[in-house]
Structure formats: structure tokens, C-alpha cells
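[Q] Does anyone have a clean C-alpha cell version of this?
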Amino acid sequence: MEWRKAACFDTRALAVLVALSSVGTSACSVFDPGLLPSEGGGCTGRVPPARVADADAPGDETYVVVLRDILIDQRGEPGDDPATAPWRDIGFNLDNLCTTATEAATECRPPSEGLPIQVDGNDGIDNTFGNSFFPVLSLGAAGIDTDLIMTQERGVGAVLLLIDDWNGEPNDSRVTVTVTQTVFGTPGAPGGGPPNINIVGSEAFQPDDSPAPPPNWDGNDYFWGRSDTFIANDVNTPNVRVTTAYVTDGVLVARLPDRTPIKLVGTTLGVEVTLTDLLATGNVYEMFFDPQPTPPRVIVAGRWGFNDMIAQGPNVGVCIGTPLFRTLQTILSNMIDVLQDPPEEPDPNLPCDALSVAVTFDGYVGRFGGIALGQDIPSPCP
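[A] Here you go.
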């Protein structure tokens, strides 16, 4: 994929970026499955199923979910009605408010006077990332969406969820979820069982020293997680494990620790996403017990702090100290619409410091092979 560093951008690119500083004013607030429906603006809000009340016995099997095919560009096809853009139905109500053109309720103060506020999508969805961010991102990292999808299809950089204590039924009041990302994936051995491979760093080889083949995505592939997401290379001590997730009507709802790192590794670019108010939800029952013609969609949503976003500039070709980097700072500061760490009650006097984010992945069944050395996020900047 052709890569363009910030230093290579001409004045036309900068002009486009400046123009983009005023886009995204129709972004829609996203409803967080863990929050109550909003009472403001006549919006009931889109929420996930609530936790079932009845206690149940934990299961004794580990279910492996691999998330690939990230959807970053959520604007829809050129010429489509903006009212039907995909971003409007992706995410949750993060601020528990319904912000519309006529009901300007916000949890914080917009960054600049005179700029239109970011409004919500359908049912109170907050997803300014999906509505406004991709055009800016694509100027610094042309093709980032297709590159990340292609890399994940090879088994690299997909999100890997290990689900324990699930009873395997559509309803389970408490399950355990471990989070990592894939270093590589490869088909299991003929007849079942793990493949016969040799691991060297971040790569896997067959006994004849040829590279291990990529996954078949048929449910029998084995995936290795990043060793830096486990303590002391011990699979029993992951950095991120939550015991308060649950499954209701087949849907997994997992609220993850703030700033859990999600490293999206491409071939010549990448990005580390660290969200607060982080939530993942998707129909895992369909994956394992009720397969459908298409893989179920898993939503990952949260709040991406302004400083954390800016820090990723070099990883997507927006190099520190360049005019493009300074322009990016200005554009993003005009997009932020939520608080990274909000108080219990919204305070419109607090300055916004984060961007509402929601993306989707397709969920696939896999098997866990172990851990290996994770790839570095490539950076085209000096």
C-alpha cells in the first residue's frame, strides 16, 4: 500500500484538512449498554439487554472469539442519503443524553464558540468518530481501513476474547472475559488438535521451515495472543480480565477497564486505541450454537481522549512538528464531544476532552494456541 508521510503533503491536503475542521456537525450520540435510557430530548436510547437476575452454575469450557474486519469508514457510499449512513446505528449512548439540532443537551462544553454541536445518531447514539473522523484519518493514512482488514484476515492484529465461566446457554448472569490481540493464526492439525509449528518471535513456521498457512476461518484455527498482554508470559495472568460480563438473550455484554490498549497493527501503519467507558457487546450464542449465514457483529465503543488521539499521529503518518500535525490538533479539538472521565451528572461548563467512538467487528470462532511476541505498531515518521 502506498504510504504518504506528513512531510509529503502539499498545500492542497492542508486546505482539505482545514475544511474538514467544520465537518461532522451531524454526529449522533451513542448509547452505552451499561447506562440507563436517557430521559432527555424524548429519546429512549439504544441499550443492550440487562443482566439476568438468576444466578447459575459456571461453565467449564473456554470459548474463543476472534474479531476481524473492523469497520472504520462508516459514512456510507458516495451519493447515499446521509440520514442512512451506517454510523447512525453503530454504538451506544455514552453521555446518557439525547443531543439533537433542537435539543442541544451536552455533558460538556464544546471546544469552540460558534461551532455547531455534535448531535446524536439514531436512538441517542454517540459516534462522532464514525461520522467525522475517517475523512481526516484517511488523509494521513490513505487505505488504513482496507489495510487493517487485510492484516486481520491473515490472523494478525485481530481482537481476541477468551470467554470463561459461560454456561453455554442464551442467558448467564456472570461470565469472565480475557482480552488480547492476535499475533498470528493458523489451521489446526488434520484430524483436530493444535498445529505442529515452530514459533520464532512473531512468526510461525511448519517443520519444513515454510511459513505456517493463514487461518481458514472455519472455527478450527488456532490463534496466539500477544505476550505483552499477559504478565511474565503467563497465560494465567492476563493484563485484562473482567469477571463481571454477562450473556443475555445470547448477547455478551462486557465492560472493560478504562484505557485497555487495543493495538491495531497494519502492514505499514497502525494505531493503539485506548478508550474509557469501554464496552464490547455482540451475539456470542450465534457464533457457537446458532450459526447464521453471516458472522455476528460485535460493537466496541467508548471515549477516546484528545491527548491519546494526538499521540497516535506518527503511527498514521502525521508526524510531530509538521504543519499537518498542528492542523490535525486543531481539527480534532473542534470534534471532541464528550468527557474522558465524566462526573455522575452532566456539567456543560466542563470543557469536552474526548471523542465518542464506536466501531464494529465481525465475530468468528477460534481456538487458543498460547502467546507469542506481539508485532510493533509500524510508524512511517522518523
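[Q] Thanks! Anything notable?
[A] Residues 128-140 form the longest helix (13 residues).
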